[in-house]
Amino acid sequence: MQALGRRIAGLLRPGDLVMLSGELGAGKTTLTRGLGEGLGVRGAVTSPTFVIARVHPSLGTGPALVHVDAYRLGGGLDEMEDLDLDVSLPDSVVVVEWGDGKVEELSDDRLHVVIHRAVGDTDDERRSVTLVGIGARWSGLRAELEAAH
Fold first, then answer.
1. What is the SS3 assignment for 137?
2. Could you tell me whether strands 110-117 and 53-56 are parallel, antiparallel, or unpaired per DSSP bridges?
3. Tens digits of per-residue pLDDT, 27-49?
C-alpha cells in the first residue's frame, strides 16, 4: 500500500482531493504514508483519528499534505466545513479517509481510492484497489492511474 501511495503521489498536484475508502485495517493510512513520502512532506504520517486532521508541510517546493480522518464525523459537509478544507485545498493535496458522503462537494474533481481486503477470521493480507478519477482533472489520466495501480 505504501509503494502504491508513492506511485500515486507522482500524479498529484496542489488542489487535488483524494478520498480513501475501505474497511478498518484496509491500509488507508499506510497508503497515505506513501503519498507523504512521494510528495516529500515533513512529519510522520499517522492516523489522525483523534485530531481529525493533520497538515504535513512540504520539505521542498511541492504541495503540503492535509490528512483528514472523517470516521468520527457524522454530519457530512457541515462538520467538514469547520475544518476549513476549502481554504487548504487550492495549495495542498487533501486526503480524506472515510470521506464518502462527506466531502464530495469540496471539489468536482477528485480521486477516489477504494481498498478491498478480506475480512473476518482470515490470514489473507491481499488487497485489491480500485482507482476512480472523477471530473475533468482525472479524465485524461486513465492510463497513468492504471500504471500507478
1. helix
2. unpaired
3. 999 999 999 999 999 988 988 76
